[in-house]
Write a structure and sequence with these properties.
Number of domains of chain A: 2
Helix content of chain A: 25-40%
Largest sheet of chain A: 6 strands, mixed
Distance between the termini of chain A: 47 Å
Largest sheet of chain B: none
Strand order of the largest sheet of chain A: 6-7-8-3-9-10
CATH topology of the largest domain in chain A: Rossmann fold
Largest interface: A-B, 28 and 23 residues
Radius of gyration of chain A: 26 Å
Strand content of chain B: under 5%
Structural class of chain A: alpha/beta
Order of helices and strands of chain B: HHHHHHHHHH
Shape of chain B: elongated
Structural class of chain B: mainly alpha
Bound molecules: adenosine-5'-triphosphate, magnesium ion
Low-confidence stretches of chain A: 370-381
Mean pLDDT of chain A: 90
Mean pLDDT of chain B: 90
Low-confidence stretches of chain B: none
Number of strands of chain B: 0
Shape of chain A: elongated
Number of strands of chain A: 16
Strand content of chain A: 15-25%
Number of helices of chain A: 17
Radius of gyration of chain B: 20 Å
Oligomer: heterodimer
Helix content of chain B: over 70%
Distance between the termini of chain B: 45 Å
């Protein structure tokens, strides 16, 4: 756990003192990613650099697991804090292998240990060790260099990571890929991470918590969904953008809002049974038909069920779309708009039907202040 | 001329070796002292100004005058003439290019690299050894080359105070009105400067960290 306690930095400049960080107090729980977000010059980098004492605080304290960092040996402290600087900063005189293994070598690891570690890290960042380890930084693309920078910071397996716009130099497509890789890694490694970003979308995607800075002050410190649902003031609101409600869609998975009561018919059921079941559930348009494995195979229209005789298998119409439990609501909304539908069946990893999601569930979720409160799902009309 | 060269080939060779040895000794000592001084003054702008100023003044003293100053001082210790004042003069001349290049090179190391080095927990010494000096080597070596080439000429003049080396041909050629000796000496000094410059360039490339070779060529 990292605790900042009234952390303040005042730079003395020729034009007088500049307060770059003004009594910042916050806590990052162990194993979480905290994003420092805010406009240029608001003090994000300064705050970050006070944690590994690249910048000496004017006043205030930084505590890591309860220990005041001012009382620790600076070198030891830094060996235990992975640092990714914004400018990447790979050493041009060292090979990729030497760059990645530099902290373990400083700490006196033996050769087999740090060589193995280097190879593991290359796998982790999805780069081929045999192709790259003997290269020099200038032979790599910007994106590859940035990944090596992250690997270097991870090398000695530090419990804490400080990352200053670590994916800033990467084009949007590759950035998304690297963000995903990093999140996957974090799921296993559970580091405590402070991560500076300019980009609200990156913050929402990567952060367990987001700290919004303005002119050296911490304005709001919340979980992403809470931040988007309830910005504290107009500054935060304008910083988040007019489409913040839509941004929340990214944060919610189908799993969180799915309604698992759903009526179905089997192909062998008669249309009479289908009609009864449609009435019973109060559906207006259609009912889903599932096979033996409970996988949706199509639907029977309410009008057909009501006015026709026969079996469901003969009156099956195709389903326009279905969604997975791990899809986010943004994808669901996009599907609904694309197919002009107001609901979609949800399936699990084995394509088995496990519920449904409606436009109303989604709008209801967005209008509610907290995600948790909408967990009790309202009755649905299909 | 060719006859003269062949007839005195052994002497020519031994004087060349002598010349190289004297310049190497002087520039060697200058490197061993100049590089640490160059590094040390990166810590203080004021000290850097003073040291670079003094070194620059020394270079402006004509070599004959420098020998003139040194002879009475060194004769107190019994080294008024011979190779000692010559080596000291060359050493003093070499300090400026070496100190200045070292200072500039270390100071010009990308601040981002310095911050990265600090951030991952390198001590100041580790930073110098693993990052700053390797990155500064090409520029430091360029300073050493300048010093060597410059001082191959200065050392030739030192023959007048009995330092030996190729300058002996020139000084004798003048005093004995013997153009053969004069020309052989002058050509040998020039050739030596060119050859040594190339040899040091090759060494500089050898010492330049591999990862930087391309960057430097491209830049
Ligand atoms: N070494 C310094 N000396 C004087 N002022 C500084 C120094 N470093 C930063 N500042 C000032 O402190 C303020 C905060 O700077 P900081 O670099 O922390 O901002 P930032 O939020 O990281 O901005 P950006 O998004 O542009 O990187 C700015 O006004 C900056 O000009
Ligand atoms: Mg910054």
């Amino acid at each position: 756990m990292i605790r900042l306690d009234n952390l303040t930095k005042i730079y003395k400049t020729t034009e007088g003192p500049v307060t770059a960080a003004d009594r910042i107090s916050m806590e990052v729980p162990a194993g979480e990613i905290c994003i420092l977000l805010g406009p240029s010059g608001c003090g994000k980098t300064t705050t970050l650099k006070m944690i590994n004492r690249i910048v000496q605080p004017t006043s205030g304290r930084v505590l890591i697991d309860g220990e005041d960092t001012a009382e620790l040996d600076t070198q030891t402290l830094r060996h235990n804090i992975g640092y990714v600087i914004q400018q990447i900063g790979l050493f041009p005189n060292m090979t990729i292998e030497e760059n990645i293994s530099v902290v373990p070598r400083l700490m006196g690891w033996d050769k087999t240990k740090y060589r193995n570690r280097t190879r593991d890290l290359m796998d982790m960042i999805a780069m081929d060790p045999d192709a790259f380890l003997n290269c020099f930084p200038h032979e790599l693309s910007g994106g590859q260099q940035q990944r090596i920078g992250v690997a270097r910071a991870l090398a000695a397996d530090p419990p804490v990571m400080l990352m200053d716009e670590p994916f800033g130099a990467i084009d949007p497509i590759n950035r998304a890929v690297i963000q995903d890789e990093f999140l996957k890694m974090q799921k296993e490694l559970k580091k405590t991470i402070l991560f500076v970003s300019h980009d609200i979308d990156e913050a929402i995607k990567m952060g367990n918590r987001i700290a919004i800075f303005r002119a050296g002050q911490l304005v709001q410190y919340s979980e992403p969904d809470e931040l988007l649902a309830a910005p504290k003031n107009e500054f935060v609101e304008s910083f988040l953008g007019d489409d913040r409600a839509l941004k929340r869609l990214n944060l919610v998975k189908v799993r969180d809002v799915v309604n698992d009561t759903i009526g179905t018919v089997k192909p062998s059921d008669s249309l009479e049974t289908a009609h009864k079941r449609i009435e019973e559930y109060g559906y207006q348009n259609a009912i889903i038909m599932v096979n033996e494995q409970y996988q949706p195979v199509g639907m029977v229209a309410a009008s057909v069920a009501k006015n026709t005789k026969g079996y469901c298998s003969d009156h099956n119409s195709p389903m326009p779309a279905q969604v997975g439990l791990d899809d986010d609501l943004r994808k669901v909304v996009s599907l609904m708009f694309g197919h002009d539908i107001t609901w979609a069946p949800c399936v699990d990893e084995k394509e088995r039907l496990c519920g449904q999601i409606t436009q109303r569930t989604i709008t209801h979720h967005l209008s509610a202040r907290h995600a948790m409160q909408t967990a009790k799902k309202p009755a649905e009309v299909i | 001329m060719i006859q003269f060269t062949l007839a005195n080939f052994d002497t020519l060779m031994s004087r060349t070796v002598e010349h190289i040895a004297l310049v190497s000794l002087a520039v060697g000592i200058a490197t061993l002292t100049g590089v640490p001084i160059g590094i040390a003054i990166t810590k203080s702008k004021r000290a850097a100004q003073i040291v670079l100023y003094v070194a620059a003044i020394i270079v402006t003293i004509p070599s004959i005058a420098l020998f003139g100053i040194m002879m009475p001082i060194l004769s107190i210790f019994g080294y008024g003439i011979g190779y000692v004042p010559a080596v000291i003069a060359v050493l003093l001349y070499s300090l400026l290019p070496i100190i200045r290049n070292t200072y500039t090179a270390i100071n010009n190391v990308d601040p981002a690299l310095r911050e990265a080095a600090r951030g991952i927990g390198m001590s100041p010494n580790e930073r110098l050894r693993l990052v700053e000096i390797p990155l500064a080597i090409p520029v430091i070596m360029a300073g050493v080359r300048t010093a060597v080439v410059l001082n191959i000429g200065v050392m030739a003049i030192a023959a007048y105070i009995g330092a030996g080396g190729l300058g002996t041909f020139i000084s004798r050629g003048i005093s004995q009105s013997d153009p053969r000796q004069l020309i052989v000496g002058a050509v040998a000094v020039s050739l030596l400067a060119v050859v040594v410059d190339y040899a040091l360039l090759a060494l500089q490339k050898q010492l330049t960290p591999k990862g930087m070779a391309k960057i430097i060529q491209a830049g």
